[in-house]
Amino acid sequence: MATPTGYPRELVHDARLRDGSVVHIRPIRPDDAPRLQELYDRLSRDTAYQRFFTVMKRLPPDWARILATVDYRRRLALLAEHDGPHGVELVGVGRYEPTDEPDTVEVAFVVQDAWQNRGLGAILVREVLDAADARGMRRFRAYVLSDNRRMLDLITRFGEVREHKMEQGVTELVFTRRAEPVGAPRASG
């Protein structure tokens, strides 16, 4: 498929995980919709539930199409892919979507179970926040299951929480991007 209009090539790069493995990070394209469904099929029930707050037999094709079609400005998704035994496989997705507030976007992330605890989530959070910031988005909203400690920890590592609400097992966070993530090495000089 041809590269979509406005495709941000500057966001395409390789990233090395803590275990030394390498993933390719790039913005999503409309032709990635079937690959989103394949990724969903590889998620555990817990991971699928943590991302979508429901478990479906399959990610519906119309959802996949909507999720894969972005404008690269107000809606953006970054994919992490890796050469798998059956070709290039999608292993993680980070995205932001517009909200009813012009200066705030909603963020969401998912990493395939076998790729968790390797630093990919942190890479996707940083890359999505950086891309949003470069496009003028300064405030972020995330809805996270209250028992999803890893995601809540990532958000507080990369964001300054401005609002925090909990309702029916879901934590809503509104945050701004930290200048420097908590625990990041400091430059000496």
Description:
- There is one protein chain.
- This protein has a domain at 9-136: 3-Layer(aba) Sandwich (Aminopeptidase), CATH 3.40.630.30.
- Strand 3 (76-84) and strand 4 form a beta hairpin.
- With 189 residues, it is an alpha+beta fold.
- The chain has an eight-stranded mixed β-sheet, with helices on both faces.
- It contains five helices and eight strands.
- The longest helix has 15 residues, at 120-134.
How is the topology of this model organized?
Elements: E1 13-16, E2 22-27, H1 33-42, H2 45-52, H3 61-68, E3 76-84, E4 87-98, E5 104-111, H4 120-134, E6 139-145, H5 149-158, E7 159-167, E8 170-177
Parallel strand pairs: 5-6
Antiparallel strand pairs: 1-2, 2-3, 3-4, 4-5, 6-8, 7-8
Helix pairs in contact: 1-3, 4-5
Helical content class: 25-40%
CATH homologous superfamily label of the domain at 9-136 = Gcn5-related N-acetyltransferase (GNAT)
CATH class of the domain at 9-136: Alpha Beta
- Uncertain runs are 185-189
Rg is 16 Å
What structural category arises from helix and sheet content? alpha+beta
Number of strands: 8
Helices and strands, in order, run as EEHHHEEEHEHEE
Q: Main sheet: which strands, in order across? A: 1-2-3-4-5-6-8-7
What is the CATH architecture assignment of the domain at 9-136? 3-Layer(aba) Sandwich
Residue share in β-strands:
25-35%
CATH topology of the domain at 9-136: Aminopeptidase
Q: Counting H and I runs of at least 4 residues, what is the number of helices?
A: 5
CA distance, first residue to last residue: 47 Å
